[in-house]
Design a protein that fits this description.
With 172 residues, this protein is α+β, with helices and mostly antiparallel strands. Helices cover 34% and strands 15% of the residues. The protein contains 6 helices and 4 strands; from the N terminus they run ααβαβαβαβα. A 4-stranded antiparallel beta sheet has the order 1-2-4-3. Helix 2 packs antiparallel against helix 4 and helix 3 packs antiparallel against helix 5. The model has no long low-confidence stretch (mean pLDDT 95).
Length: 172
């Protein structure tokens, strides 16, 4: 599968089959995450795998949606604020770095025949209390991971010219 086909196949899955994710696939996905770029190569992140029944019950309290409960496992992507790069004007790059790493995760999962969904609208305070051992760790995204039980829906995307503006004299 070429890269364009891969990104077209990645979507926000909201129904998962009750099948376990193979250890080899999970390790492959996390290895792809490990190589994600970050500002000044700081890698200010932690990825917590949630797969035990007790931990799954806890994470489901943080985002109480029926579809969310169908996932066989979850990954909590956290920013480690004491490790993130800060630009000279004070701009923190942890949010940018975690977004890059999470999209590496989602694309790698898609390549492996698995499905994901970015979940950012969760009870962050509860998630931090349940899963973040240090004050400097901020849970930023929860990613359900598993085999899709639904189908890819067509993506509504803006036209190319609506998002790209050339500032050079010649068009490619």
């Amino acid at each position: 599968m070429d890269f364009l086909e891969l990104v077209k196949n990645r979507y926000s899955c909201r129904v998962y089959k009750p099948l376990d994710v193979e250890k080899e696939k999970l390790e492959y996905i996390l290895e792809c995450v490990r190589f994600a770029p970050s500002a000044v190569n700081k890698q200010p992140w932690r990825f917590r795998i949630v797969s035990s029944e007790a931990e799954k019950a806890n994470i489901q309290q943080c985002y109480n949606r029926d579809w969310f409960k169908s996932a066989p496992m979850y990954i909590i992507a956290s920013i480690l604020h004491d490790e993130e790069w800060v630009r000279s004007d004070g701009k923190h790059h942890g949010d940018i770095d975690i977004a890059i790493a999470v999209e590496h995760l989602c694309l790698a999962a898609t390549e492996q025949g698995l499905a994901t969904c970015w979940v950012c609208n969760f009870d962050a305070a509860m998630c931090k209390e349940l899963f973040a051992p240090s004050e400097n760790e901020e849970p930023a995204v929860i990613i359900p991971l598993g085999y899709a039980a639904d189908e890819i829906k067509p993506k509504n995307r803006k036209a190319f010219d609506a998002i790209v503006k050339f500032t050079i004299r010649e068009k490619y």
